[in-house]
Amino acid sequence: MSPKKSPADLTGAAAPSPARGYERICESHVEAVRAAIPGAIQDVAWQTDDQVTVTVNIDTLPDVVAFLYYKRDGWLPMMVGNDERSLCGAYAVYYILSMEGQDRGWVVVRGEVDPVTREWPSVTPLVPACVWSEREVRDMFGLVPVGLPDKRRLVLPDDWPDGLYPLRKDAMDYRFRPEPVSDLESYKFLTETHGKETTVMPMGPMHITSDEPGHFRLFVEGETIVDADYRLFYVHRGMEKVAETRLNYDAVTFLADRVCGICGCAHSVAYAEAVERAQHIEVPERAQWIRAICLEVERLHSHLLNIGLVCHYAGFDTGFMQFFRVREKAMDLAEKLTGARKTYGLNVIGGVRRDILKEQRQDTIRIVRELRAEVRELVDVLMTTPNFESRTKGVGRLDPQIARDYSNVGPLVRGSGFDRDVRFVHPFDGYKALDPSRFKAASQASCDVQGRTLVRIQEFYDSLDMIEALLDGMPEGPILTEGWTYTPHVFGIGATEAPRGEDVHWAMVGDNQKCYRWRAKAATYSNWPTLRFMLRGNTVADAALIIGSLDPCYSCTDRVTVVDVHDGATKTITKDQLETYCVDRTHSPLLDD
Amino acid sequence: MLKLWKLERKTGEATVAYPFAPLPVNKDMRGKPVHDAAACVACAACAVACPADAIWMSVDPDAETITWNINYGRCIFCGRCEESCPFEAIRLSQEFELAVTSKADLHDQAVYKIQECSVCGRPFAPRKEVDLARRVLDQVVGSAAAWQRDVLDVCPACRRRLDAQRAKASCDAANAAVLLEAIERDAAQAGGADAAGATDAADGGTSAEGVR
To answer: In Å, how far are A65, A276, A406, A543, B178 from A400, measured between CA atoms?
Structure first.
C-alpha cells in the first residue's frame, strides 16, 4: 500500500468557491438576475453551499430561466413539478440549472403555480431543453404550461382517463390502475417535411434497438430519412409514485438502483446524495471514494457494451463478441466489489454497505491491468477495420447548437465538442481528489457516431486510470454514518455522471420517513429529444446505428411496419431483415415488393 | 484482419461448460436468501427491513400461529434481511439458479406458534421470542428482572394493567410507610416533651396528613 495521504493533499481540484466579490457560491448569478430582470426575485435560499433556490414571480419565470441558461452558461437537466398545496398552498415548479461557466454550482428557479388556474408560462419556447419535463408535469400534475406548442401527452398512455393526475397528493393509491377509457391509440406523430412527399415508416411498439419499447416513425424519401418522431414511456413504471407512497426514504436507494439495468449505481448514488445534501449528512470520505470507484466500474462495463454494439451495427460482429468477452471481466469486478454483477445494493443514505478490503483491492488492480491490455488490443483491431470508419464517420451528426439548446449529456454532447461532465464540472465524492491536470472530460469535435465512440473509448481508459488513482489515495475510516437529525420538507439535488451522461435527482423528504417528492432524471431523458435532428438526412440503414450511438438500453424485439402514406400499402419487415440490412446494406427490405 | 486472427488464436475458447459443469461464483456474491427456521425467532426484523416486501409475516389468530414468508420472485438480493437479523437466521447464499416451473415454488414459509397470554388467554407474541427473552432474563439478577420474568407470558395490554396495579400497590405501601413514620415521629416528640403531649398524640393523624 502506498503511504497514507491526508485528504487535503489529495484534493487536486480546487474546492468550489464563490465568484470574486461575493460571499456565497452562485450568488453572482442571483445578483445578475436581480440586475437584469428587476422585481423578479421573491426569495433566495441556499440548500447547501453550491445549491441555491430562487423563488421568482411566476410571470418572469421564462425570462429568468432563459437568462441563466443562455447568458450565464446554464444547462438545464430537468424541471420538477411538485404538489405543495399542503405546504404553501400552491403547486411549485422547479427549473434546475447547472451553472457551468464562471461560479459553478446549481441554481434552481422556483415558481409557485396557482392551484385554481393551474397555469404557468412555458419556458420551452425560449429554452427547448424544458420540453419533455414540462409535458411530463402537465401529465402528472395537470398543470398547464401556457405557450408550450406540443400539446400531446408524454408519459400517460392514450387510454388513461382525463383529469386523473397520478402525482397529485390527493390523486390515487399507487396500486390503482384505472380502467382504460379508449382502445385506440390517438397519439399524433408530428413531422416537418417541408412539403416533401415522404413514406412513413413506423418502428414499434417495440423498438429494434432499444430496450425500452418505443414507437418510432421515420418519414423517408427513398432511403433518406427526412424527419422522425417517436413516442416512448410504454414501460413507465411509476417509480416516483411508489417511492413517495410505499417506501421509506432510506429504502429508495434500492429502488433507484433499478431505474436502469446498466447504470443503477449512478442513480442510487444520485438519490442518496440528494437526500444527504438536503439533510446535511456528512458521508465518510472512504464511502465517497468507494462510491466513485463503483461508478467507474459501472462505466467500464457499460462502455464496453456500447462499443461492442457499435461493432455489431457496423457489421463487425467478431468485434462485438470480443468486446463482450472482455466485458465479462468488468462484470466480474463489479460482483467482487458489490456482491452483484450490476453494482446493485451498494448505497444507503449516509454511506455504503461494503468496504473494499485488501483482497478486493488486489483483485481490482489485477483486473484493471488485464482490461487495459485486452481492450487496447481490441481497439487497435477496431480502428484498423476499414468498415468501422466508413460506417461511422459523418453519420448521425448532432449540431453543437442543437446540443446546446437541448442540454444533451454524456458522450453524445462530448462527441459534439462540449466537455461537460459532472465529474469535472461539479466534482463530487472521490472525484474531488482527482488531479485536474491529469483527468479531463474526453471530447471530440466531429459530432458524429465515430466521435461518440472515440469519446467512449477514451473514457474507458480514463476510468481504468481513475480506479487506480482512487484506490491509491483511499482514505481510511468508517464507510457509513448513522448520526443525523431528520428534517422534513427540505430538498436537495444529487448529480452523478452515469456512463450515458448525467443523472440528476431532486428529492424532498417529508413526514413519516417518506419521500415527499422524488424526481429521477436518467441520462437518456436529456438525449432523446435531439434524436430526430440526428436522424434527419441519414439513410434508413444507418437509423439503428445512430440510435445506438445515443446508447439507450438495447434489446432486439418485434418488427417494423412500413406504411406508404399515399397508397396505404403496409408491409411488415422482421427485425432480422432490418438488422441484416443495417449490417450489410444490400437488398433493402423496402424494395423487395 | 491479421491482427484479429492473431487475437482470436490467442484468446482460444472463451465459453465455459455451464450448465454441464458448475459455474464458479465470487465468494462475496449475494444469491438466494436461506432461512434457518430453527434459529429464527419470528421477530420480523427482516420483514421490516426488506425494501422489496419479499419477506412478510402473516398471523393466523385461529390457529395461533405466526408465519414467516418469502417470495423469491420479489427478492432483489440486497441482503438487508441478513444485516437486520439478530440471530444470523437468514443469510444470502451463493445459489443463483432460482428458476422454477411453478410460480408457487417461489414461495417459502416457516410457521411458528404464538404465546397465549396467561391472563386473558389471547395470543400475543411468537413463542420462540418469549422463550428467548426468558433465557436472557435468566442470566440477569435483580428484582426488576425477576418481575419481568414473572410477566413474560402476559400480553402487553394485560401487562399494562398489571403494571398499573403494581404501581398502585407500591404507591400505597409508600404512603403507608410515610404515614407510619410521621406517627412515630410525632409520638417521639410527644414523649420527649411533657405529659400534656399525650393528648396531642390524638392529633397525630392530622399532622401526618400535613406531612403527606
So the answer is: 20, 35, 10, 20, 90
